Amino acid sequence: MVLIKEYRVVLPCSVEEYQVGQLFSVAEASKNETGGGEGIEVLKNEPYEKDGEKGQYTHKIYHLKSKVPGFVKMLAPEGSLVFHEKAWNAYPYCRTIVTNEYMKDNFFIKIETWHKPDVGTQENVHKLDRPTWQDVTVVPIDIADRSVSSADYKPDEDPAIFKSVKTGRGPLGPNWKVLICYLHICSSSFTYTRHIPADVIEHIFLLKH
């Protein structure tokens, strides 16, 4: 069973500003999810150009054994906690594919992201055909939503209380999307198998942004 969801993330910055912030957020998310970076193996990090698309290609392997409880390590088959991530960053368009060699075709995530100067109102930015688009579930992500676990919560990174000295933006109140002038949409459509809980994906999107 294949599911398709579109996550819409609105941010208080321009598309150009987020290009810089994206590099930092991806690096931080990778470090936090793998125990300080020791679980990441970078196989490739090189420029690419294909079919008119130009950007940076990376191939990483995530070794997640150190991130799971001991009993899971004992029960997990060899290779089941190793994930391959291939990413093509042609900002403002990005594409990421995550696979697991142990689960093979039973595990496949494809994330396609468009960064747009919008407040999350554009429909079908990925230009899917009508039947496919009708089956897409749209999930809005509010970065000022504080309903995260205590283990993930960091007061100094909470958009609801943080104020930027440099830009003067923040903190983000209940109606922040109406008050901020510079906004963009990070709309990501991806497919994944039924074995992947949707709340796990949403958790990653919320923490990353």
TrEMBL record:
<keyword id="KW-0472">Membrane</keyword>
<dbReference type="InterPro" id="IPR055261">
    <property type="entry name" value="PI_transfer_N"/>
</dbReference>
<dbReference type="GO" id="GO:0008525">
    <property type="term" value="F:phosphatidylcholine transporter activity"/>
</dbReference>
<dbReference type="Pfam" id="PF02121">
    <property type="entry name" value="IP_trans"/>
</dbReference>
<protein>
    <recommendedName>
        <fullName>Phosphatidylinositol transfer protein beta isoform</fullName>
    </recommendedName>
</protein>
<dbReference type="GO" id="GO:0035091">
    <property type="term" value="F:phosphatidylinositol binding"/>
</dbReference>
<keyword id="KW-0007">Acetylation</keyword>
<keyword id="KW-0333">Golgi apparatus</keyword>
<keyword id="KW-0813">Transport</keyword>
<dbReference type="GO" id="GO:0000139">
    <property type="term" value="C:Golgi membrane"/>
</dbReference>
<dbReference type="GO" id="GO:0008526">
    <property type="term" value="F:phosphatidylinositol transfer activity"/>
</dbReference>
<keyword id="KW-0256">Endoplasmic reticulum</keyword>
<dbReference type="InterPro" id="IPR023393">
    <property type="entry name" value="START-like_dom_sf"/>
</dbReference>
<dbReference type="InterPro" id="IPR001666">
    <property type="entry name" value="PI_transfer"/>
</dbReference>
<keyword id="KW-0445">Lipid transport</keyword>
<dbReference type="GO" id="GO:0031210">
    <property type="term" value="F:phosphatidylcholine binding"/>
</dbReference>
<keyword id="KW-0446">Lipid-binding</keyword>
<dbReference type="GO" id="GO:0005789">
    <property type="term" value="C:endoplasmic reticulum membrane"/>
</dbReference>
<comment type="similarity">
    <text>Belongs to the PtdIns transfer protein family. PI transfer class I subfamily.</text>
</comment>
<feature type="domain" description="Phosphatidylinositol transfer protein N-terminal">
    <location>
        <begin position="2"/>
        <end position="178"/>
    </location>
</feature>
